[in-house]
Amino acid sequence: MEKIIVPLGTRSYPIHIGAGLLDSLGVYVREALGDITVAVVTDDNVAPLYLGRAVRSLQSAGLTVKSITLPHGETTKCLNRLSDLYNFLCHARITRRDAVIALGGGVIGDLTGLAAATFLRGVHFVQLPTTLLAQVDSSVGGKVAVDLPQGKNLVGAFYQPDLVLIDPDTLNTLTDEFWRDGLGEVVKYGCINDAALFALLEECAPGGREALMTRIETILQHCVQAKADVVAQDERDTGLRMTLNFGHTIAHAVETCQHYEGLRHGEAVSLGMHIITRLTEARGITAPGTADRLDALLTALNMPMQLPAIPEADLLAAMGMDKKSAGKTLRVIVLQEIGRCHIHPTDVSFFNGMTSA
Ligand SMILES: NC(=O)c1ccc[n+]([C@@H]2O[C@H](COP(=O)([O-])OP(=O)(O)OC[C@H]3O[C@@H](n4cnc5c(N)ncnc54)[C@H](O)[C@@H]3O)[C@@H](O)[C@H]2O)c1
Ligand SMILES: [Zn+2]
To answer: What does the angle CA 189 – CA 194 – CA 198 come to, to the nearest 5 degrees?
Structure first.
């Protein structure tokens, strides 16, 4: 069992990582927040797998429990479902001393977090993330949001939870598609600030998902610590937190050009890390051999490195880099070597030739 504190002054909170924590949810919530009512929010894939155990654990600790199950998928992260949640919280008679618990992936975490941040001007918030992406990324850092038809995450807040419980056993039921999705971000942490994590991934990757699962607590601990360190120094995303966007400029462009119906986010990030590191190594910004090492790991993890057939001009346009951007300063996250990155000021010409990298 591991405990990582996200140090944010009076809003500091613990993230516990350990197999079987789901069955201790009630004990942890009761200890942190006392004798309260809890409103559990989940989706229809997660409910049949884990909602019963979560509710039993909370009830055994003497807490009053209400729950709601929403449809799964990104379309749930919207204003209509947010409004459904407000209705549910009213019916459940949630007060400011009570808590909302997100049981699910990043969609449930982001939506529930925004409801928690805004209902009654803020109620307690607990996360029990059940996807790899949610465990290493979306449940750490306090960004909560819903999408608008005009774009992703356009309505949101910074709202830190009171408690996060990560139970790696929940990953056993994840499809390979969503497992790989989370791996993109895991590799990213290794690249930007944790060479030991990168080496551990190199060691396990040939054994596939099974081998990675034998070391999963350590892997999760490294990722959560890496993100917590960055968030603690730049909670509001005005500087250092940018480094978490390594590989993401290209990834977002690919996702936009494919209308979010092609590569999944983590796969697009994998591709983005590969392309940018090839570019920067060729230009002497990144230590020789880094791109080969990264590519070998991504290959062993079965992550995509082949850019889909999208014209370079379309990708540049999706990055907001058309002719009008000439001369504009761009800040791109680049690796010096595995485990070390920096923010590199450059201009739009930086990405020229990326489709042949
Ligand atoms: N807040 C942040 O800082 C942050 C960071 C990264 C991503 N995000 C957001 O996270 C979202 C993506 O998160 P996600 O990939 O977890 O998506 P998700 O919540 O849609 O979960 C992926 C799928 O897995 C299912 N699922 C969840 N847990 C499962 C389990 N244990 N076993 C079997 N199936 C399970 C879900 O029902 C869903 O179908 C996006 O909306 C993204 O914007 C937020
Ligand atoms: Zn990402």
So the answer is: 80
One-letter amino acid of 256: T
The reply to whether ligand 1 has any atom less than 6 angstroms from the CB of 143 is yes
Torsion 113-118-120-123 (CA) sign: positive
pLDDT digits (tens, 9 = 90+) for 105-125: 999 999 999 999 999 999 999
The Cβ of residue 145 has, within 10 Å, a number of other Cβ atoms equal to 20
Domain borders along the chain are 2-172, 176-356
Q: Is residue 29 lining ligand 1, measured as CB closer than 6 Å?
A: no
pLDDT score, position 212: 98
Beta-strand ranges (E) seen in the chain are: 2-6, 13-17, 37-43, 64-70, 99-104, 124-129, 143-148, 151-158, 163-166, 330-337, 340-346
Closest ligand 1 atom to residue 173 Cα is 32
Give domain 176-356's CATH number out of 3.30.1330.50, 2.120.10.80, 3.60.110.10, 1.20.1090.10: 1.20.1090.10
Same fold, 2-172 and 176-356: no
Model confidence, pTM: 0.96
**CB–CB of 354/315 below 8 Å?**
yes
Ligand 1 contact, 131 CB (< 6 A)? yes
Give the amino acid at 82.
Answer: L
Residue numbers of the chain with a pLDDT score lower than 50 = none
The number of helices, as runs of H, and strands, as runs of E, in the chain is 14, 11
Per-residue tokens: 138: 């979306």
CATH topology of domain 2-172: Rossmann fold (3.40.50)
Separation CA 69–CA 118 (nearest Å)? 20
Give the DSSP letter string of 65-107: EEEEEE--SGGGSSHHHHHHHHHHHHHTT--TTSEEEEEESHH
Which among 81, 112, 133 is the best mutation to test ligand 1's pocket, defined by most ligand atoms within 8 Å of the CB? 133
Which residue has the least CA distance to atom 22 on ligand 1? 105
Q: Please name the amino acid found at residue 94.
A: I
The size of the chain, in residues, is 357
334 beta partners:
342
Q: What is the pLDDT of residue 33?
A: 98
